[in-house]
Design brief:
The complex is a heterodimer of chains A (about 110) and B (about 110). By secondary structure, chain A is mostly beta strands. Chain A contains no helices and 12 strands. In chain B, strands 2, 4, 5, 6, 9, 10 and 11 form a 7-stranded mixed sheet that branches. Chain B has a 4-stranded antiparallel sheet with strand order 1-3-8-7, with no helix packed on it. Chain B is built from no helices and 11 strands. The chains are: A mainly beta (about 110), B mainly beta (about 110). The interface between A and B is medium-sized, with 24 and 27 residues.
Chain lengths: ~110, ~110
Amino acid sequence: GNSVTQMEGPVTLSEEAFLTINCTYTATGYPSLFWYVQYPGEGLQLLLKATKADDKGSNKGFEATYRKETTSFHLEKGSVQVSDSAVYFCALGDSSYKLIFGSGTRLLVRP
Amino acid sequence: EAGVAQSPRYKIIEKRQSVAFWCNPISGHATLYWYQQILGQGPKLLIQFQNNGVVDDSQLPKDRFSAERLKGVDSTLKIQPAKLEDSAVYLCASSLGVGREEAFFGQGTRLTVV
């Protein structure tokens, strides 16, 4: 069945460091791919999305490119801030509108 | 635009008691999801509705969990009887349901079973 695998955390970085959180997926057909973020004490929010191969989603300085050849959707940010500390979830949406999540990666950014 | 509303925000019950959660999705959203998120894990889909029909309930523990979606709008999720391992955050989400678009989440209900 369809699934999402993320790198385990926590990921600890200093402010202004470069961030990469790896995400790979297994799916039949052509899923949509998403990154959701969960800030402390808050609900899940969509961070960015891509709906077809080679699409790049971007928001708030974060980017991810839908790579069909490597079945990946890695999240990147050039310079993280303390306010980016949160849990990040990679997810895929399949043809039956099912939304499947990875296990999440906690990011901690230190001043 | 109003978001997905859930209530209550928090609930503490004893094991073997029953509990119910309520969700009001974004107006016009055909797809409604209930997820269970155990601390430190990703959300696990319990049940997915398309309008008022069930699309997927393969991971719903049907001996104790039940869900319904009234007139294709509001939804309730019930647990009876609760077990300690049901302690989790229960998330409701909705989407337009016309393509592989994103879902919008409520704040969740944190359930503690003691």
